Amino acid sequence: MAQAAAVAKPPAPPRRRRASATPRRLPYLLIGPAALLMLGFIAYPVISVFYYSLQDYNPTKPWRNGFAGFDNFVRIFTDDAVFWDTLAFSAKWVFVEVGLQLLFGLALALIVNQTFVGRGIGRALVFSPWAVSGVLTSAIWVLLYNSQTGVTRYLADMGIGSYGTSWLSDTSTVFSAAVVADLWRGVPFFAILILADLQSVSKDLYEAAEVDGASRLKQFWHITLPHLKDAIILSTLLRAVWEFNNVDLLYTLTGGGPAGETTTLPLYIANTSVDAHDFGYASALTTVAFVILLFCSIVYLRLSKFGGENK
Description:
The structure is a single chain. This protein is mostly helical. It is 68% helix and 1% strand.
C-alpha cells in the first residue's frame, strides 16, 4: 500500500528559477556612464560657483585670496551700481526680444502652416537661421553693420544717411541694431515649436466653427490660441532664459558698449571674471543671477498655469 501511495503521489512542480536581476538593471547600467559625465560637467561647476561666491579669489592677487563670507553679496546689493544697471538692461532686453520673437514666430508659423506651392522651400528658409551657430550669426551681422562695407554704405549710396555711419557705435541706434540681429536667429525657434503644435490641431474644429459662422479671427482666438497655450508658455520661458544669458552676440557686436549701453548681467559677469580676474565676485554675481532666474521661472509657470486645462 505504501508503494501504491508513493506511486499515486503527483510529482512536485518544477522549481522556478529565480529571475535574473541583470535585465532589470541593464538600462541603468547603460545610462550610468552618461549620467556620471553629466553629473561631472553640470554638478561640479555649479557647486564650484557656490563655493567661490563665498571667497575672495583673484589669481593675479593671491595674497588677498581667502574666505569672504557674504561680503561679495553685500557688495552687490549695496555698493555696485553697475549690477543694477545691467540687471535693468537684461530685463529690457529679455522683454523686447522674447515679445518680438514670439509675435513674428507665431505669424511665420501660421503662414507656413498653410498649403501653398513651394511650402517645403519656404519652411526651410524660415527655419534655416536657427541652424546657424551664435558665433557665425554674430560674424554675419558684424559684416552687415560695418560702416565701410555694410548696409549703411549702400543706404548712403542711395542718399539715405551719411557715409561712415555705424549703428553699433551710436547710443541711439545700438539697441535696435542688436535687437534686429538677434531676432533673425530667434524667430525661427518660436516658428518651429508653434508650427509643430499647429500640426496637431484637428481640422474638424475649424470646420465646425465655419459652419457656426465664426470668422478667422474668432477661430484663431478661441481655437488656435488655447491649443497653443502650453507651447507658447514653454517656448517663451526657454527663450527668456537663453536671452537673459545671451553673451556671444552682444559681446561680438558691441562688447557691451557704447558706454555700457548694451551690457547685460551675464556680460558683466564675463567681464568681471575674464577681464578683471575677480572670480569670487563674478561667482557671487552668477549665484544672484541663478536665483533671479529660478524665482522668475517658478512665478511665471505658476501664473501661466502651465499644463492646466484650458477654460
